[in-house]
C-alpha cells in the first residue's frame, strides 16, 4: 500500500514516513507543492495524508480540487483544533480527519480503517499455521476455528505483528487502550491466560511465552 | 436641576440685581421723581429681569434634565453624546464639545488596545498551531524509536500538550468570536477519546478507570467538551493519592431537566473553605500551595467554557476522601434538530 504524505514540515515528513514504513506501508513524500494536484494524480497513491496548511494552496481547496478527479482515500491532518474545519473537510469529501499532535497508533488505526472501508478486503495476520482475521474475531488453524473476544484478538494481533521480539505488558496495554479497552494489569494477565487456553485446544498452547519482567513473546 | 438649585447658584447675581434696584430707587426718591414714574421704572426693571432669568432657567433646565436622565438610564455611559443635542447656550456647548472630544480620544485608545489584543490573540493561536508540529514530531520519533525512557518522554509531551491546550482554550473563552459547533454528540465516545489520549498516565501509574452508564447523547461542542474533561482528569491525576486502590470513575445519569456527568476520584480532595472559590481565576488554594504545581487556570477556563456552551459545572469534595466534578447538560436549552425541521 502506497501512502502519500502531503506536509510541508520536512522533519515531520521523514518521521511519518518511518512510522508508515515500519507499519508495513510504503510511505512517499510530496516534493512539489506548486503542482500538488498534478503530482498526486501522477503518483496515484493508495491513500493521501493531507495537511491543511501547505504552501501555495490551502489543503481544503486541494481536497476539493482532487475530489473532482479522483476517489483516492484522503485523510486530512491539521493542527487547527476545531470542529468547523473538521466538518468542512468531511463535506469536501475527506475520508477521515485527524488533529495534530496525533497519537501514532491511532493514526495507523485510522489509516487501516479507511483502507479497509475502501478496499473491502479482510485483513489477516498469520503466524505459522495460525491465521487471525480481526474483522470476524476468529483465529483459524487449518480447518479448526476459534472465536476470540476483542481483547484476546487485540493481544494476539499485537504479538503476531511484533513476532520475533518481546512485547512488554505496557506496550500491549497501550495497544488495548488505543482500541478503547481500558484494562488494568490483572485483566491483562487473565486475558493472556484465557487466550493461551483457547490456543491450547488447537495445539498452540505454548506459543505465547512469558519472559519474566519483560513481557510476552511468540515462540 | 431644580428651581432652588438654580436660584442658589445665581444668589450672587440676584444680590447685585437687588442692590441695583435699591440704588435706582433711592436715587429716584432723592431727585423727587414722580411716584408713578418710579413705579413704572421699577415695573420695567422687574419685568425684564424676570424674562431674562426665566428664559435662561428654562433652556438650561431642558438640557440638563434631559442630559442627566439619559445618563442615568444609559448602561454604556460613554455613548451619551449620541443621545443629546448640542445645546444653544455657551456653557452647555463647552460641556458638549469637551464630552465629545474626551470620548473620541478614549474610543481611539480603546480601539488601539483591542486591536493589539486581537493581534496578540491571533499570534497566540498561530503560535499554538506552530508548536504542535514539533510536538507531533516528538511523539512520532518516540514511537518510531522505542526505548526504556519512551514512557517518561511521552508523559512530559502530554503535559506540554495540556499546557498548550490550556492557552488555546483560554484565548478562545475570552474572545467574542464563537468558533464552536454545538451539535448532538455521544457522551461515551468523547470520554473514551480523552481516556485514550491519557492512556500513558493511567498505565504508567497503574491508575484504574471505571466507566458507568455513559450511553447518552448530549448537545455540545466535541472539541471544547473533550478539553474540559481532559482538564478535570488531569486535576485528578495531580491530586491522586497514588496508592494501589486509587481510581477515577466517570458516570452519568439523566433526570427530567438534565443529563449529569460526574467525574469522581478518590484523591486528596479540596478543603471546604477553598471549595467555593476553585472556579475563580488564578485561585490555587491549599492544594496549590502544598503542591506548588497549580496555576489556578484549569478549572477557571473549564467553568467559563461550560458557561459559553450552556452547561453548568459544579464541584463536591471532602478532604482526604474524594473530589467529584459534575457537568450538567440542560435539556430544554436547545431545540432538537428534528423539532427544528418540523417547524
From TrEMBL, chain A:
Residues 2-115 form the Response regulatory domain. The modification 4-aspartylphosphate is found at residue 51. Pfam families: Response_reg, Trans_reg_C. The keyword Nucleotide-binding does not apply. The keyword Nucleotide-binding does not apply. Gene3D superfamilies: 3.40.50.2300, 6.10.250.690, Winged helix-like DNA-binding domain superfamily/Winged helix DNA-binding domain. Residues 122-219 bind DNA. One of its GO terms (biological process) is regulation of DNA-templated transcription. Residues 122-219 form the OmpR/PhoB-type domain. It comes from the Bacteria. One of its GO terms (cellular component) is cytosol. Keywords: DNA-binding, Phosphoprotein, Transcription, Transcription regulation. GO terms for molecular function: phosphorelay response regulator activity; transcription cis-regulatory region binding. PROSITE patterns: OMPR_PHOB, RESPONSE_REGULATORY. This is DNA-binding response OmpR family regulator.
Automatic annotation (TrEMBL), chain B:
It is a multi-pass membrane protein. It catalyses: ATP + protein L-histidine = ADP + protein N-phospho-L-histidine. It comes from Longibaculum muris. One of its GO terms (molecular function) is phosphorelay sensor kinase activity. The keyword Amino-acid biosynthesis does not apply. One of its GO terms (cellular component) is plasma membrane. Its EC number is 2.7.13.3. This is histidine kinase. Pfam families: HATPase_c. The keyword DNA-binding does not apply. SMART domains: HATPase_c. Keywords: Cell membrane, Kinase, Membrane, Transferase, Transmembrane, Transmembrane helix, Two-component regulatory system. It comes from the Bacteria. It is found in: Cell membrane. The chain crosses the membrane at residues 12-31, 37-55. Residues 126-333 form the Histidine kinase domain. GO terms for biological process: cellular response to phosphate starvation.
Amino acid at each position: 500500500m502506497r501512502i502519500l504524505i502531503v506536509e510541508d514540515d520536512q522533519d515531520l515528513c521523514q518521521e511519518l514516513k518511518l512510522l508508515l514504513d515500519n507499519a508495513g506501508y510504503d510511505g512517499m513524500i510530496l516534493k512539489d507543492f506548486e503542482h500538488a494536484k498534478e503530482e498526486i494524480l501522477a503518483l496515484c497513491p493508495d491513500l493521501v495524508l493531507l495537511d491543511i496548511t501547505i504552501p501555495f494552496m490551502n489543503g481544503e481547496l486541494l481536497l476539493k480540487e482532487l475530489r473532482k478527479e479522483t476517489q483516492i482515500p484522503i485523510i486530512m491532518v491539521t493542527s487547527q483544533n476545531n470542529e468547523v474545519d473538521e466538518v468542512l473537510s468531511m463535506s469536501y469529501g475527506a475520508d477521515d480527519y485527524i488533529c495534530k499532535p496525533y497519537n501514532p497508533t491511532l493514526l495507523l488505526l485510522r489509516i487501516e480503517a479507511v483502507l479497509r472501508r475502501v478496499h473491502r478486503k479482510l485483513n489477516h495476520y498469520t503466524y505459522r499455521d495460525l491465521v487471525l482475521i480481526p474483522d470476524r474475531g476468529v483465529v483459524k488453524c487449518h480447518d479448526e476455528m476459534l472465536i476470540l473476544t476483542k481483547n484476546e484478538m487485540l493481544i494476539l494481533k499485537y504479538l503476531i505483528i511484533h513476532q520475533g521480539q518481546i512485547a512488554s505488558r505496557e506496550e500491549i496495554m497501550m495497544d488495548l487502550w488505543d482500541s478503547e479497552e481500558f484494562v488494568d494489569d490483572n485483566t491483562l494477565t487473565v486475558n493472556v491466560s484465557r487466550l493461551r487456553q483457547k490456543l491450547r485446544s488447537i495445539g498452540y498452547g505454548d506459543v505465547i511465552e512469558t519472559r519474566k519482567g519483560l513481557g510476552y513473546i511468540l515462540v | 436641576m431644580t428651581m432652588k438649585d438654580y436660584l442658589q447658584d445665581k444668589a450672587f447675581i440676584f444680590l447685585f440685581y437687588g442692590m441695583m434696584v435699591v440704588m435706582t430707587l433711592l436715587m429716584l426718591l432723592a431727585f423727587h421723581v414722580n411716584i408713578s414714574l418710579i413705579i413704572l421704572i421699577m415695573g420695567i426693571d422687574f419685568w425684564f429681569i424676570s424674562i431674562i432669568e426665566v428664559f435662561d432657567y428654562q433652556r438650561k433646565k431642558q438640557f440638563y434634565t434631559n442630559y442627566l436622565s439619559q445618563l442615568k438610564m444609559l448602561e454604556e455611559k460613554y455613548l451619551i453624546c449620541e443621545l443629546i443635542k448640542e445645546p444653544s447656550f455657551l456653557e452647555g456647548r463647552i460641556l458638549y464639545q469637551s464630552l465629545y472630544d474626551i470620548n473620541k480620544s478614549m474610543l481611539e485608545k480603546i480601539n488601539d488596545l483591542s486591536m493589539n489584543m486581537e493581534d496578540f490573540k491571533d499570534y497566540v493561536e498561530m503560535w499554538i498551531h506552530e508548536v504542535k508540529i514539533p510536538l507531533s514530531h516528538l511523539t512520532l520519533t518516540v514511537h518510531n524509536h522505542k526505548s526504556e525512557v519512551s514512557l517518561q518522554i511521552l508523559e512530559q509531551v502530554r503535559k506540554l500538550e495540556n499546557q498548550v491546550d490550556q492557552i488555546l482554550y483560554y484565548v478562545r473563552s475570552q474572545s467574542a468570536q464563537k468558533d464552536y459547533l454545538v451539535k448532538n454528540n455521544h457522551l461515551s465516545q468523547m470520554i473514551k477519546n480523552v481516556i485514550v489520549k491519557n492512556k500513558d498516565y493511567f498505565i504508567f501509574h497503574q491508575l484504574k478507570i471505571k466507566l458507568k452508564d455513559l450511553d447518552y447523547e448530549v448537545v455540545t461542542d466535541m472539541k471544547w467538551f473533550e478539553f474540559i474533561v481532559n482538564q478535570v482528569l488531569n486535576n485528578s491525576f495531580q491530586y491522586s493519592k497514588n496508592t494501589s486502590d486509587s481510581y477515577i470513575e466517570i458516570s452519568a445519569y439523566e433526570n427530567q431537566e438534565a443529563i449529569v456527568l460526574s467525574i469522581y476520584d478518590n484523591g486528596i480532595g479540596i478543603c471546604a473553605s477553598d471549595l467555593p472559590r476553585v472556579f475563580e481565576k488564578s485561585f490555587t488554594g491549599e492544594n496549590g500551595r502544598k503542591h506548588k504545581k497549580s496555576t489556578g487556570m484549569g478549572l477557571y477556563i473549564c467553568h467559563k467554557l461550560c458557561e459559553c456552551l450552556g452547561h453548568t459545572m459544579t464541584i463536591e469534595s471532602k478532604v482526604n476522601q474524594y473530589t467529584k466534578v459534575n457537568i450538567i447538560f440542560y435539556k430544554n436549552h436547545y431545540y432538537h434538530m428534528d423539532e427544528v425541521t418540523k417547524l
